[in-house]
Amino acid sequence: MHYIKAKFLDTGQVLQVEGIWENGINRDDFIVVSSEKGEEIVKVIGLSKEPSQSRATFLRKAREEDIRKMEENRKKAENFYNTCKEKIMKHKLSMKLIKTYIPIDDAKVFFYYTAEDRVDFRGLVKDMARVVRKRIEMRQIGVRDAIKMMGWLGTCGDVPCCIRFAEDFESISLKDVENQNLPLSSAKFTGPCGRLICCLAYERNNYLVKSILPEIGTELCFDGKILKLLYVDPLMNKVLVEVDGEKEEMNIELLLPFGYEKALKHCSTRSCCKHLLKEDEVASQIQD
Asked: pTM of this prediction?
């Protein structure tokens, strides 16, 4: 089964479009949907075999009047954005306004913002209500959502994955850095949002074999000799061991138990890797 996917124009979030479809709707077309924000225009991005958590009901293919209304509301939203920034400064609120958005049904005006702590914006909303003369909804978002909405360049020099294709934010921790044999320096793996880069999650399965091997520094009995495990490199399919005071490389499969493939398949769907360091343990090793 395939699902039709689109992107919200305000947040960049991917959604699944449900309902009856007209003929002639293609990728990059604009369509009108009914969502929890009201009637709004979204952009079709294609088909997918994976369902999405965010969903909206298809209403129609966007007509000329819909596109014209979208542009009118975009200009209004820009004016409201500038006014709201002035009001935030007036009320001395510790918040950063990210975007203002108005769906084409004009039912509400949405203000997206980030803040480290809870913000009492009742005075701000009262002031803005006199200007907007519509229902106002203030939505606090995280820094990763803010980058997705604003657009940015990642440390790789390309557009971040969260903007290009990622539907959900995976939990990334310092365990991923340590387990992938990367330098324990968080600055090297921090994205424009200030969090660890999402693409670390894409490499996890390549390093799952470390979860069924003993800890580094463990002594093993192998072929009648005592080996000390020094380093594991799953990508090269090698381990470095110490035998009688001499370092030696071995094929990683020689140390793996029979049927280890089933264990790896099991671990790929669960957070069961007991040999991964806890985040606070790795954090204590991070270099400033």
From this structure: 0.70
